[in-house]
Design brief:
122 residues; mainly alpha; 2 domains; 4 helices; 0% strand; rod-shaped
Length: 122
């Protein structure tokens, strides 16, 4: 008996997960009403975990959620800051050459400082 592993019993949460997945497949038109009813009844009657996967074997797997990148936005990285500073300098020089006061670039610098690095506390 050392080679045989005992079957694991299914819990209410396990059965509920399968019923929710079946509901999504039913809503998407992959199951008829009678198929859905039969599978839900089988899910609720399941005693062991190995009885649940067979209810989903002919249905497509659900797509995995796409992980969202964590951390600060790309424009707050050193390269992003360098690009923004270079753009502000270019706008300032072009503005001065054409006789426009550098109010707009200075406003951008203020907004960048105000909302860039310290925006995490908001």
């Amino acid at each position: 008996m050392g080679d045989l592993e005992p079957r694991m019993r299914a819990g209410d949460a396990d059965r509920q997960k399968v019923v929710e997945k079946l509901g999504r497949h039913f809503a998407e038109g992959r199951l008829t009403v009678s198929e859905f009813d039969d599978r839900v009844a089988s899910a609720h009657a399941a005693v062991y975990l190995d009885e649940l996967p067979r209810l989903m074997v002919d249905l497509p797997a659900e797509p995995r959620p796409v992980p969202r990148p964590s951390g600060p936005p790309a424009w707050t990285s050193r390269a992003g800051v360098a690009v923004i500073v270079a753009m502000i300098m270019i706008w300032s020089v072009v503005g001065l050459v054409h006789g426009i006061p550098p109010v707009f670039p200075l406003l951008l610098v203020f907004l960048f400082i105000r909302h860039g690095r310290w925006s995490r506390r908001w």
